Amino acid sequence: MSSAANQARKDAIRDNVLRPSRNVPYPSKDGKPIYTSEFFGESVFGLAQIAKALPKPAYAQFLRKMRGGQALDKSTADAIAHAVRIWAMDKGATHFTHWFQPQTGTTAEKHDAFLTLKTTHGQAGLEEVKAIDAFSGTQLLQAEPDASSFPSGGMRTTFEARGYTVWDTTSPMFVQHGPHKTTVLYIPSIFISYNGDALDEKTVLLRSTEQVAKAALAVLALLEPVPQGVPPQTSIVYTTLGTEQEYFLVDRALYVLRPDLKITGRTLVGALPAKHQQMEDHYFGHIPSRVLATMSEAELELYKLGVPIKTRHNEVAPQQFELAPIFEETSLAVDHNLLTMDVLSKIAHRNNLKVLFHEKPFKGVNGSGKHCNWSLSTGSGENLLDPSIKPETNYRFLLFLLATLDAVQRHGGLLRAGIASASNEHRLGANEAPPAIISVFLGEHLSEVLDSIEQSRPVKNFSVPDIRTIKLGGTALDVMVSTLPDISRDLTDRNRTSPFAFTGNKFEFRAVGSKQSPSFPMTLLNAAVASSLQDIAEELRKAAGDKAFPSDADKLKVIRQYIASTKSVRFEGDNYSDEWKKEAAKRGLLNITNCPDAFDQIVEEKNSAMLCKLGIFSKSELSSRHYILMERYSKDLLLEANTLRTLLAQQILPAAFEYRAALASSCAQQQAIKLSAGPELKTLNQTTPLVERLQEWIDKLDDAINQVHLAAHDPSAEARASARHLLPAMEGAREVADELEEIIADKYFPLPKMSELLWF
Question: Where is each GS catalytic domain found (predicted)?
Fold first, then answer.
């Protein structure tokens, strides 16, 4: 068995070397390349297309609907549906789908054909059936997928199957081309139950963005007074998001020979190769040709879909890469991130590669995150988290900054719950990713600004030329390169160890996992900030007293109050250090080291009361989320444990047995002709104890799996049992298996090794 598997491994390695890259031509016209901006969004049915399809009054009504100000009438919906059908069919579409985000960590879709049958009565009373293409406003607005087989956390039973997908008018429709030149119209949607409960990730995200917008506008109304009857200066606020997506690429032929990668997304066994990331030569290095071909083709598809991909580069670990888009409105950015993951997977498949979005697919090298860069913007494009030249007198900026600090201070446990998963658990807290303690990095300059305001003293001068620029054109020692220009220096250095860092005019939530949808973490962040903004608005009103609007002195009073109350969540040092863990405990910051404890923060009274008060979740929706997260965690770990057990029993142990037999036979042959069998005996004596230990660990794995099954029917107990029993059993078994891998002769080993997966 192992020899056949080993041959398959060798064949995959050979094919990997010989396989040519795909050649996908860049769009051109008359032999000249077309600028990206000319075909960007060509597969999207956006506002420009809707404006062409509708009369001006109907289009104005649609815009009011997008902003939540008016219902969409049937005639307008029918007009949009007709226009988008013609547009999509002209691009080859035969089907449409309501594309939604169930609580499975991915997206879902059910395709329906535009084709329908129309029965007419002909002459002599005969019925005639005619095939036509049709798409109504009712079909556009909603559909009914079966809700019984999606996670509901007990809100629905199997026999209560009805659920609804509803068009999210804030996210544009688009077409995607599939195999055999098939094309489908995608309608971004929310997913709710028969009773209106949120069964998805997007409904609650939209609720949270609406609440943070209302709260922000309430604060701005106090800060930007206008005469009665005059429209406010700012009438729209929305959150923005940019998601830096990290991922690994491996050869698909090698991937299919790894059951653990196929089933769980990560290698459950595998010794670290001699060379991995320790040479620090992969980060920002030359992009391998097959990878660049995949990246370029994926970007080409994404540009057509209106996804503004900006950056691509090698990441720290071998075969790890990153792409990052331009910032967009949060719910659209989430849609685009999920679309990016889907397109990357499809394009990689065409290039005989496999994308791994798991946070820790390979033990011993860096894992992957999805750094979520979050901010607040007005309808006119002003960034509310832009410090400006003098942040110490920019009271608007300071209040929005402090609202965010207050949100993290009061609901850090909730934010920790938003990033918790069985896969991200392998990454958080390691010296490669933010720790489980949620704190905020502001940097030297902003920290000095807040300290100076709190202490009623002048702020240190951070704007003198020697500080704001780096001179490369010559120094007193005349050792610099005179031909190079002076460059601007940022006011603050970066802190990559911080889970929530201010980076100029936004916060970077670095702790989000690469496999996660950004929806849930951003929902919780939006909610926490909305709650803090509401409190700040109330404090401003109190400070103003009988006055219609707070004075600068009133604003400063509130600012000082929040600087003092949020001081404990600010940390500028090394978040990886043991000293920080001790210091964080003194400050009262939570250090939640496992997923079940993190999930409990969702239903903790302080957090649940805030989420329900804002209307982002109902009590039943929160309970169901808690149930689903616990259940998914234990399912993930059980899946890994059972996969590992099968892998050890059916591949690793048989390979070890075959190698032992070969060694024993060699020993006997050497002894029969009076030669020393010392070298063979030494290796045999190393192998045998490891084989025995591995068998013992398989038994321990069985016991651990049984312990989890004893807690069945109680997701919380099952999740805790999984963390307590499965994780140490899997780690112990892996250590022995990896030791065996380094001893067993290569020709007997059936699985592609990390050296082959990471260096193709």
Answer: 201-652
Claim to verify: residue 366 and residue 433 sit in the same structural domain: no
Residue 165: in which H helix or E strand, if any? strand 163-167
Picking from 240, 264, 192, the residue whose alpha carbon sits closest to that of residue 508 is 240
The answer to the question of residue 624 being in a domain is no
Q: 205 lies in a domain? A: no
Residue 743 lies in a domain: yes
**369: which residues sit within 8 A by CB, 6+ positions away?**
244, 246, 359, 427, 433, 510, 511, 512, 513, 514
> Do both 34 and 63 map to the same domain?
no
- Of the candidates 15, 548, 471, the residue with the CA atom closest to the CA atom of residue 252: 15
635 phi and psi angles, rounded to 5 deg: -65, -40
Owning domain of residue 360: 1-38+240-268+279-375
Between CA 175 and CA 95 the distance in angstroms is: 10
Q: What are phi and psi of 183, to 5 degrees?
A: -135, 140
Query: What's the CA gap between 56 and 496, in Å, rounded?
Result: 49
- Strands 183-193 and 93-99 come out as parallel
Please tell me the distance from the alpha carbon of residue 339 to that of residue 173, in angstroms, as a whole number.
Answer: 12
Count of domains forming the chain: 4
Specify the pLDDT at position 713.
85
CATH number at residue 351: 3.30.590.10
Radius of gyration of the chain (CA): 29
The closest of 298, 352, 301 to 322, measured between CA atoms, is: 298
User: Sorting pLDDT into bands at 50, 70 and 90, what band is 430?
Assistant: low
Identify the pLDDT of residue 677: 84
Alpha-carbon distance of 102 to 164, in angstroms, equals: 12
Burial of 688 by CB count in 10 Å (0-12 exposed, 13-18 middle, 19+ buried)? middle
- 221/214 Cα distance (integer angstroms): 10
Confidence of residue 462 (pLDDT cuts 50, 70, 90): low
pTM (2 d.p.) = 0.94
Q: What percent of the chain has pLDDT over 70?
A: 92
pLDDT in tens, 520-565: 999 999 999 999 999 999 999 999 999 989 999 999 999 999 999 9
As given in the structure block, the two tokens for residue 429 are: 């807290």
CA distances 674 to 322, 483, 610, 670, 678, Å, are: 60, 76, 82, 6, 12
Which residues lie closer than 8 Å to 38 by C-beta, 6 or more apart? none
Look at the block and give the residue holding tokens 């494009």. 381
Phi-psi map region of 488: left, alpha, beta (phi>0 left; psi -120 to 50 alpha): beta
User: Is there a contact between 147 and 139 (Cβ–Cβ < 8 Å)?
Assistant: no
